[in-house]
Structure formats: C-alpha cells, structure tokens
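User: Could you walk me through two proteins back to back? I'd like the raw sequence and the structure tokens for each, with a short line separating them so I can tell where one ends and the next begins.

Assistant: Of course. Protein one, sequence then structure:
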Amino acid sequence: MTIEDYPFAADGLLIWTAIKQWSRGLRGPLLSRPLRRDEIRNKGHADKRKEPWWPALNTPEDLVGILTIMIWVAAGHHAAVNFGQYHYAGYFPNRPTIVRSRMPVEDGNERDLKRFWEKPERTLMENFPTQIQATRVMAVLDVLSAHSIDEEYIGDLPSAIWDDDLTIKAAYERFRGTLTEIEGIIDERNQDRNLKNRCGAGVVPYELLKPFSKPGVTGMGVPNSISI
C-alpha cells in the first residue's frame, strides 16, 4: 500500500478482498443458471444502455468484478462515508453548515477588518450557526448516522433461501468467518502506536469499517446495502 497509515484504504481493502472472495464463491452457482446479461443495462438503465463505460460481462471473472463493485459501493463505501457523520460533524465547529456573514478579508471593509484583528474569536462566534441551527443539524446527523434495531450487516446470519444450495452456503460461511477476522485486525490496528492516524493522544480509533455493530450511533458497522 502506498500509504500504510491511511485507515479508510487499509481497512477498505480488507473488506473489498472479502467481498471479492464471496463474489467468486457465487460465480459457479450463478453461471450454472441462464445469465440475463441485458437485465441491468437494457432494462434497468435503458436510457444509458449505449454508453461506452459499461463494464464487460464476457467471462466469469468479469461477473466477479461487477458483483464486487456493486456490493462494495452499497455496503463498505457507503458505511465509511455515512455512519461517522455525527461523530465528526455533530460538534458543529468541526464542520459548520452555515456561515452567517462574509469574513472581513473578503469584503475589504477596513472597519470590520480592524475589528476582526482586534478579536478574531468574536467574529468567528458571530459567523457560527445559531444554537437552533446547530441543534437541527445535530438531529439530522444523528438520524443519518444511526443503525436501526433490525439492521442487516454483511456477514450476518445467512439467508434461509440458501439452505438448499450447499455451495453458496459454504461460500457465505467462509465470508462470514473472514469478516469476523477483519474485526480483530481493525482492533489491533487501532492499538498500533506506529499508526498515528488511528492511535494516540486525542486520536479517535478508526472503526467505520468494522463489519458489525449494535443499534444506534456507534461509528461502526457495514450494512448489506444503503439504508436511511
């Protein structure tokens, strides 16, 4: 890896690799059935079916790549950018959602600029959101960042519809085991003092790509798909 101490990339590659192995386990059973190549492209996105960027679907490995991308985007990638919103932006100075006036240096107003240099924190406080504005944003971010009680995570209990397909069931059990191992690897990384972006004084452990979570705002957990 180019940057070892890059938590999103390091943990993301673990999840990506696990998803790819799971997709490869599905390849045989899926290809043993009629493959409807035109389903997503020609029916689901008929207005875009002639675009040149559609991935090729000519070999079994093409199918693995497509499945991996689809699962990763809806599961791992979304979890990493979504479920940490409250932890980061719930404290509004980290990411104010509104600035109530222009900064003095932008207007060229000498009086306001002089007032700014005399006491910069006063101008900063005047520009921050009001209490009611900040509270509303906190409430929205709390909802966006929370896992529901019935959230379904990748590697969770297998679907009953797979009980009759031993090949898929075995592949999923391997996938589930790998995700459990990934939880442990992420915990170990978060205790490694050589990784300054995830361990140390004042540094929040990076847990956004830990596969499983309890309900609520936990800052971890990778659901099966995007859910709001």
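----
Protein two, same layout:
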Amino acid sequence: MTQRPIVVGIMKMDVAGRDDRGLSRLTQGATAHFSRVLEKEPRLEITSLTFDGPPITPRENGYRALDFVQFGINEKTERRLAFLLIVTEVEIAAASLSYLLALPSQLTNVAIISTRRLADHGTEEPQDEALLAERLGKLMLHCFGRLLNLPYQSAPDNYLSRIDRPADLDHMHHFTDGQFHKMAVNLPQEANDRYSTGGKWGFVLQQILSNLPRIFRGAVRANPIRIATRLPRMIATAFSVIVLLIFGAETWDFAASASTAQLAVFVAASFLAATFVLYQAFSFRLVPTRKGNTSESNVVTAGATYLALVLTLCCLFVLFAVLMYGVVIFVFPDPLMSTWTSDRDGSSTGAHLRLVVFLAAVGILSGSLGGSADSRSVVRNVLFAVDET
C-alpha cells in the first residue's frame, strides 16, 4: 500500500496588499532551499500557497503573530495540511523580544515568519535577494524543526541553533543524521493529519485517547504556573469574593455542616464552569472544514488548551486554599470559631479544611469571570507560543 504523504504548506501572506519587497521571489527561492534540504524524507510533500490581504490590523508595536496563527489554523484545516509555514512581509510584534523573526506554534503546527528583519538596515543586505532568500529558507527549516519538537543545538552551523540576530542564519548549513532520524520518527506523531469521516464525537474521543501523551506534553509545556501569573484580574476577583465570604457566619456554618460528597460535587462543578469560561475566552476558534470534517490537529489543540487551563486552575486552587488556611489559623480566634457556627464546632481541623476547600472553589469559580477579561493576547501567547525567535 502506498504511504500517505505528509503535506507541508508554505503560504505567502501579503498583508500590505503589494509585493514591493519581492515577497513572491523570496518565498519561491526559500521554498526551493527548504525542499532541497528535506528531500531525503520521502513522506514529505511540500506545496506552495498564496493568501492575499487578510483583514488583520496592526497593533501599537506591529502585527500580532497569534492573529496569523488563527488564519493558519483555518487554512491548515480546510486545505488538509499537516504543517503550515506562513511567510509575511510585515513587522511581527513580540511579547518578550524587541522584534520577531519567527514564531513556531508547536501546539497548532503553524509557524509565522516575517521577512521584515531578515536584513540589517543601512547595509547592502536589503538589495541582496539571494542572501535574503537563503536566510528565509534556513529560518523555515529552523521553524519546521521546532514544530517537530527537535531540541535546540549548541553548534552554530546547525539549523536548530538559537538565533540572536539575522546574520546567525548565515552560519546554519545542516541537520545531523541523528536529527533526520528523529525527524522521521516524529513526523507521523506530530502531523496530526487525520480527519473525521463519520461520527464527530466518536472521532474526537478516539483522537483524545490516542494523543494523550501529546496533549499532556502540550499542556505542561504551556506552563500553567506562568499562565496563572498572567491572570491578575482573575486573582483580584477571586480574593475579593473570598475575603467577603470568610467573614460571614453562614460560610462557616456551611463548611462545618457540609458532607464530603456535597463539597466534592461543588468543587467539581466549580472547575467545570471555570474552565468552560476561560476556554471560551482564550482558546482559538477551531472550525471544521466546509464539509464538516473535524481534524485531529484541532482535537489535540483543544485538548491541550483545556488541560492547560485545568492545571492552571489547580495551581490557583492550591494557592487560594493555602492562603485561606493561613488566615483561618492565624487571624480568627478559637473562641469565635467554636461559637460562630450554629450546630457544629467550627474550630476543628476538619471544619477548617472544608472551609478552605469551599473558599478556594468559590475563588476559581468567581475568578474565572474576572479572568475572562484579562488580556487575550497575553494568555494566548503563553498557551500557544512557546518559542519566540
């Protein structure tokens, strides 16, 4: 049986609506270089695409890379591509760097590459199209290697060495045999190029189960602790509600009287509601094809996003519980705790634990409403953009 090819799309996206920098020629030359280097991998099929004039508006510091990723997800799904490299001529804003050459989003298998900074201004480099095309091709190879989860290399002549400035691309010349072997192993695992043919939900469940390691890896790589630090409105909202409740006698009554099963149901419901709210606020819009087919890539992206948000809420839950336990132990006097509740002793260790668990659950539930107002671009950048080159 003939092996199904793994399709890599290289899409020219001319945002400015004109080709005054020779974007077409640069992309064509870079694609040729990209194809030559990867020709020893017979399963790869490289296709050139064009997408002109997307309705993207620049921000204060330039265009946001994650806006391009959303277009990339849509195009990759509709065109049934395993990987998509988008090449544009406009400035791409970076979250932690002064400028951005490329952003490979490993979770979505989409990489955004800008040609704006490939040449140093004030030199003759901007007029040297051969040099720029070669640099662009090497940058494509670098991004493709990162999409395949190949690690960075210390050798400056390797395509996976770190890039501090565009001139570093001139020293890159090869992948090692070990990298090609790792690439061959990772390709079918990372491609996620299956599509549903029958029932949608059966396909979704099957892909979640078969891709659990990749979903877990993507969620952990997003760093839930770092996501939590990007949700100041959520934390402020949660603390506002918790502080109000902890000084109410009814809260202590509930904590002292509620059963373990009742509390567990409340905590589970709080997590489900909070993750639903945050997922709707921060996830990408993952659409099926026009024929209604759901892609494996979208299932993996959605699963990793949801799991990352669940782990983030777990971190915040522990934070709220520890802080509230400290307040209960060191702020409230024992005589007050033992007499404030109506029918049970609120000063027992069990009552304290039920109270802090209840308050932490209320914190993540109420905080999710405030968290949905946090900066979508900041949180998305942590979730979907591990590398900034």
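The first strand starts at residue 6 and ends at 13.

Let me know if you want the two compared in more detail.
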